[in-house]
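Entry 12.
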Amino acid sequence: MQDAFFLVSKLVWAVLRPNTLALVLAVLGLALVWRGRRFGRWPLALGLGWYVAVFTLPVAALLTLPLENRFPRPATPPAQVTGIIVLGGAVEQRLTAARGIPALNGAAERMTEGVALALRHPEAKLVFSGGTAAIDQSGPTEAETARLLFTDLGLPANRVVLENASRNTHENAVFTHRLLNPRPGETWLLVTSASHMPRSMGVFRAAGWRVTAWPVNYTTGADPALWWDNPFPTRLNQAEWALREWVGLTVYWLTGRTGAWFPGP
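Predicted 3D structure (C-alpha cells):
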C-alpha cells in the first residue's frame, strides 16, 4: 500500500504540478487558437493566467505565509535536548555522487541549523531522516550525503543517526520513530522548512511522537516589501512549493496520515 501511494503521488504531481500544467495548457490553447478553434482561448487563458497572477500579485507570499507562520519556534529554547531530527529534502545526492562533495539546495538551512543545534547541545543526537524521493530507488540516498556533510563539519560519528529508507514525510516520521523508539519526557527538536512544518508535525504526531517544531528556511515575512524581493522564476517555484504543501496536507488528512487538515501548535 505504501509503495502504491508513493508511486501514484509522484506520477500525479509530475503531471499536475502548477508550473508545468500551466505551460501545457497555454501551449495547447495556443495551438487550438492557431487552428481556428475558439474554445482554445480557455486553456490559453488558464495557462497564461497562472503566470500573470504570480508575476503581478503576491500569490507566492500569500500561499506561503500561513504555512510558515503556523509553528513558531519556542519562546524559550529547551535547556536539555535528547535529539535533533533533520528531515531530508535539502541535499542533492546525485550531484554529490557525481562531484564527490556534499551538494545542497535552497533548503540548506535544514542541514546548517541541525549542525548548529548539535554544537549547542552536545548531549543530543543528530538524526537525519531521508532515503531517496525518486521513483528509481537504485541511486544514492540523502543519508549518504548527510553523512559526508556532518563528517566534513567535524561531528563525531557516534553522535549521528541516519535513517536512509524513507521516501516521503510520512515515512520520515514512521521509520525514524521505529529506529529511535523515543521515551516519554524526552525532548526532540524537529528541523525542517517552515512551510513544510505543519505537515511534518501532523505526521509525527500521528506516529505517536510529540516533537518540538524548530522551523528554518523561511522564504517570506509579514512585511509586504519582502513579497516582491525575489525574481519572477523564484516566485514561481515558491508558489508551486506552497501549493504542493497545501495539496499534501489535504491528501495526508484524507488518507489518515495526519489527524488534522492543518495541524497547529
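Annotation: The chain has two domains: 2-69+231-254, 83-216. The chain has a mean pLDDT of 90.
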